[in-house]
Amino acid sequence: MRIDIISAAPDLLKSPFNHSIIKRAKEKGLAEIHIHDLRSFGLGNYRQIDDTQFGGGAGMVLMIEPIANCIEQLQAERTYDEIIYMTPDAKTLTQSVSNTLSLKENILILTGHYKGVDQRIRDKYITREISIGDYVLTGGELAAAVLCDSIIRLIPGVIGDETSALTDSFQDNLLSPPVYTRPSDYKGMKVPDILLSGNFPKIEDWRSEQAYKRTQQIRPDLLDE
Ligand code: 6GU
């Protein structure tokens, strides 16, 4: 999979992709991430990328031309399966969306800043808009890093234990059950007997029951879906 990201704050994206799972995915050749600095498509001597909004109001808006020029230059080199705009005024990311995106070959992500981008960019180029939750971030960069992490870890071969991603919270609209490791008794706090029983069908039943209980308590909304 190849992911291209267009950003006005590319430095924010450098660190998250050089750690742990994403780093390994890159080293194994399973994922490539290319970051493009919107500023290099800016207009005039000052490389302008934003301007005040028509109709008045506080905050700057990212202009059409630098973004359109950047997108079209990238599109001349490859066809994108999806062009995604990261913005708080969109549907919230779910595991189901990440599953879908993990099957794509070429994804382009546009991150917003300031008051966002000129609506005509969204109308013309964007195939999907994604928010990562009901709160506002300074820019879409950290949200794009979250999206990329959630997608890349689902690519076969990225996570060592193939079954691991499939048993995550949310994979079947349930939260994960509690987990324990050694010691089995920590200052009188004991691991549930069932997990030490060696009876694996029973253990699976217990985990399903715990996952359901936890979901009912913490995220009953997931059970309605
Ligand atoms: Cl995608 N962008 C920004 N700026 N804030 C957010 C977000 C995205 N998702 C949640 N908050």
Salient structural properties:
2 domains; 35% helix; alpha/beta; 9 strands; single chain; five-stranded parallel sheet; Alpha/beta knot; 225 residues
Mean pLDDT: 94
The biggest beta sheet is recorded as:
5 strands, parallel
Q: Which cofactors or ions or other ligands sit in this model? A: 6-chloroguanine
* Gyration radius over CA: 22 Å
Into how many domains do the coordinates divide?
A: 2
Helix content: 25-40%
Q: Overall 3D geometry?
A: elongated
By DSSP, the count of extended strands is 9
Walk across the major sheet and give the strand order: 2-1-6-5-7
CATH architecture name of the largest domain: 3-Layer(aba) Sandwich
Measured distance between first and last alpha carbons:
30 Å
The level 1 CATH classification of the largest domain is Alpha Beta
Which residues sit in consecutive blocks of at least 5 with pLDDT less than 50? Answer: none
Strand composition percent = 15-25%
If helices are DSSP runs of H or I spanning 4 or more residues, what is the number of helices? 9
CATH superfamily of the largest domain, by name, is SPOUT methyltransferase, trefoil knot domain
Protein name: tRNA (guanine-N(1)-)-methyltransferase
Subcellular location: Cytoplasm
Pfam family, one: tRNA_m1G_MT
Enzyme class: transferase
Gist of the model:
Helices cover about 35% and strands about 15% of the residues. By secondary structure, it is α/β, with parallel strands linked by helices.
Structural description of this entry:
- By secondary structure, the protein is of the alpha/beta class.
- It has 2 domains: 151 residues, SPOUT methyltransferase, trefoil knot domain (Alpha/beta knot); 55 residues, tRNA(m1g37)methyltransferase, domain 2 (Trp Operon Repressor, Chain A, Orthogonal Bundle).
- The chain is 35% helix and 16% strand.
- The chain has a 5-stranded parallel β-sheet with strand order 2-1-6-5-7, sandwiched between helices. Strands 3-4 form a two-stranded antiparallel sheet.
- A hairpin with a 7-residue loop joins β3 and β4.
- The longest helix has 19 residues.
- The two termini are 30 Å apart.
- The model has no long low-confidence stretch (mean pLDDT 94).
- It binds 6-chloroguanine (6GU).
- The site of 6-chloroguanine has 13 residues, from loops.
